[in-house]
Design goal:
The protein has about 270 residues and is an alpha/beta fold. It has helices spanning about 5-15, 30-45, 60-75, 80-90, 105-110, 110-120, 135-145, 160-170, 195-200, 215-225, 235-240, 245-265; strands spanning about 20-25, 50, 95-100, 125, 150, 155, 175, 210, 230. Strands 5-4-3-2-1-9-8-7-6 form a nine-stranded parallel β-sheet. The relative contact order is 0.17. Residues about 180-185 have low confidence and may be disordered.
Length: about 270
Amino acid sequence: MHRIQRTFQTLKAQHRTALMPYLTMGFPSFESTLTLVPRLVEAGADLIELGVPFSDPLADGATIQAASQRALENGMTVRQCLSQVTALRSQGIDAPLVLMGYLNPFLAFGLSEFAAAAAAAGVDGLIIPDLPPEEADEAQAVFDAVGLDLIFLLAPSSSPARIRMVTERSRSFIYLVSLMGVTGARGHLAPGLEAFVHRVRAATDNPLAVGFGISTPTQAAEVARLADGVIVGSALLQNIKAAPDAEEAAYAFIRALREGIDRVAGA
């Protein structure tokens, strides 16, 4: 069983919700990921989403766009991202590591070569927002061959047919985009989120993780009542950028989210 599936099964048995923070690799400095990830795990993160910086991030809002630009300026590349995943594994990080990136850099690397290198580095799964399931046959076959989970996204606008297609293709969890638009911290959760989660839940037993717009422990707790996982990115990056000590800021922020989520399990 892969790390992602094992993690969700363990948490389900414990009646707990997964917490999955997002980091842009190479932000705020080239080697920041190597010190930030261990602190996130210490704070209670169950899975880590690692963003591969790209010059044209279609699904990302201003915060992640700026972080990606800084990371590119710092010299981060796909190959360097994989090298840092290898280093994290050598440090003893056993949490699932999921790369979030856009298709073009992976194609430029060579899809088969990238898949083999990612699996060898210790990557567990891939989120590719600009790869729709209708066009994913070749990529999914390549990733399946080396044991990488291709994680698909669903949005509130997804049709019943699209939901059915994604649930049939999914090997691990499904990423539910909580609202229409790009990433970014919001003051309130989308009003139709509960209905959206229930609509997907009726079609699958796979874990459902919700991302986009979650920025506070209260919001994380609200999502934890509905879904199997909570994904937080922009708000974490904002905390890291604003703090004199990025590692301590990241730890404190994720610890607060963890406590908010766990209060739901204990309620």
